[in-house]
């Protein structure tokens, strides 16, 4: 987890801790006689307040902390402050309510929680708190789940600290219709389990202040203590598990049983498997493998698997991202983890490039758009049990709460007991038992929840940034509206939208990024050659460095080989997205460029394979390999240029990379053309990968045992990962919590091969220093010296033989 230098601490409830954050409340109402409502709301929490009129039809309420260092309030105190544009001086006072038990604030908490959810999140601090940071839960995104009719909301910040059991909030909302009386259906759901469900009649709260709904703006914030019997119900793992899957839904239903407002808020604890450190770690591994490959290309005794390790590393890294492209219901933890590897498949968002691609598509018939932001992480059926059936709203009746063993009552019956003359009477009347518990909701009741609360489809709450932080396009902008009856497609579309890339832009994005990569590779090779040439003029280069100094050998041994490795790394991914473009593209320009790009890549591969087959047929398969007693620098052109693709394999299977290309074509067909059919994709890929695994086990095509072991283990990891993907299909019907566990198993299954290749790459870097390698190099140098000495002797003999016939003539 990433640690930040400025980690937000929870509000303190002890006098030895930081000052308590004040509550900010600003009530602005037209001067139409509703000023009494303001006082009623405040009087529900306090008995002392100062007000004044600004003379502009707006009434503002002020109360401030004293100038001295404030102390943390007790749970029965609620400090309130407000900002105002009034030129009059602000009175300063401390508000103190009557001494009440902590549990008596439950109705206030429910009322506040309701208002919190009816707003757009401006996360108070959504940065990753770190593994050892404070345990907290906060809203990561909020969206309308139905068109707003009676309530307009603009902003919200909600944060619960477990350490001291406080709830911190900031809200802004308003009503636009007159004479709207409503009841609220509140549901909190985590991993498909109903944690909290309640039906509230707003007319029974605070002497009917919210009945009908007020038409003035409400802007406020504060900190409230949460009763321990409710705070203790949140398990410890909810504060630590990465990518928490929890959501709260609020529906306001009028007297005609019509939904006038519906809001959905996703919850987060700040922890996620998407980490910048993991991204740069895999990039570093790729660069390390590329350097090792270049180094082994310059060592006489090193040919074969070590030079092509970069291909193994990149294929393993790409596999994690490719797995997430299937149309499956993945846990959020895995999709966030797979996002760390998106760079390997060219999914990099460069803003000017995206603008150019989108403009080109729009001018050539492209009309598709996407839903952007990492809110897709908090979007869909991850926050629900995706396999629960739809139900109608009228079927939902909240379960009763059981207080210890003394009585059972309906939450709405509590609200009706509020005295009309004293809105705070409930605070004094109701005393919860210290050991009171809430009866958990049973499975039958969960199955009867409305389809808008537990949707089969993935319902997104867009505009959330990294680690759950809201992306604020414009201050005070409207909330996004989601459709609970619309299925948001998974697979390539979803993966691209997580990086703010329109699905129709995917192919051109990948193509351009791979072209940029090709340019960087050529520039790096050119820079290396120039540097080596420069230092060769100063220092006497060793014998093995001749492959770097001479351009003909450098171009044949390095440039050609690295172009071949580049093609093997990029062609499978480019082919996948080309198939996707032809299947779902909306513009003729990307379709044409996809055809041209695939043709160019196939031509590049043909320039390697066709000469290789020709030379193998004319001179034999061994002609493609370096002689055992001859350094690569002294070998012929065939093994240097056209035999590079055969070096990792036995002479009998010199064509083995063709099998790799065939594998990439089949994989691309299943993923691109099988979109929207996750079961077919996962089962088909599993079957094909299993066949490939058996072929590798039977024929063992690598040149040595270590190469065969690595190849088979990498294939086995892919078999396991495709097998795990079957569990994420709707046909498997795996429930939510087991599905999350399986998701972490998939993280391990795809991560182990990368760790294995990291160790192998490190071993490759030091393998030339092993005694066996050194002995091989010495043996090659000794044989080369013997060949040179023998060549000198033959030249001397030729000179002597030419000089002997001249002696008789002279006599």
TrEMBL record:
A GO CC term assigned to this protein in UniProt: membrane
Biased composition (Basic and acidic residues): 783-802
UniProt entry tagged with the keyword Repeat: no
Membrane topology: Multi-pass membrane protein
Domain ML-like: 135-274
Membrane-crossing residue ranges in chain numbering: 511-535, 556-580, 592-614, 654-673, 679-699, 706-729, 741-766
Family matches, as SMART domains: TRP_N
Signal peptide range in chain numbering: none
Keyword Cell cycle carried by entry: no
Predominant cellular place of this UniProt entry's protein: membrane
Superkingdom of this protein's organism: Eukaryota
InterPro entries: TRP_C, TRP_Flc/Pkd2-like, TRP_N
GO biological process: fungal-type cell wall biogenesis; transmembrane transport
Biased composition (Polar residues): 48-59
Region (Disordered) residue spans: 1-35, 48-99, 780-811
Pfam families found in the cross-reference section: TRP (PF06011), TRP_N (PF14558)
Keywords carried by this UniProt record: Membrane, Signal, Transmembrane, Transmembrane helix
Localization terms from the record: Membrane
Family stated for the protein in its record: Belongs to the transient receptor potential (TRP) ion channel family.
Protein's UniProt name: ML-like domain-containing protein
